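Morning, I've got a small favour to ask if you have a moment. It would help a lot if you went through both lines with me. I owe you a coffee for this, so here goes:
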Amino acid sequence: MLKSEEKVRNFLANVANRLCAGGYFICTHPDSNVIMKKLRERHEVDEEGRYITGNSFYSIIIDDLNVPKEKGPYGHPYGFYLADGAVGNRREVDGHAAIEYVPEYFIVFREFAKLAKEFGLELIETNNFHDFYSENI
């Protein structure tokens, strides 16, 4: 969905057109700042020069630790894998395990919120998921 501004606009148009009057749209997404911080602080480099971080539950891979700002807010990919086949796949290649990552795209939240406003969607609250969970458990 976040590969291009056009895809984001299509998504927000669908949300706005299908949301009941007075309804709420709840959007959750990975925090790109947290992802990049984890990658910069603790990563391995694979044989193709890509940066990887994660644990026994998930794995994230990215080609470059410097997201180019001149490219704009859309189309910054990373790969995501979640254990047990929930997202991505693990398979055998030449006798060792290989992960097939699912492509995801970073969100620049202020740009997303700005576009959402164009579709009549009003931002009421924004929280990092860990903070939201801690406050509402």
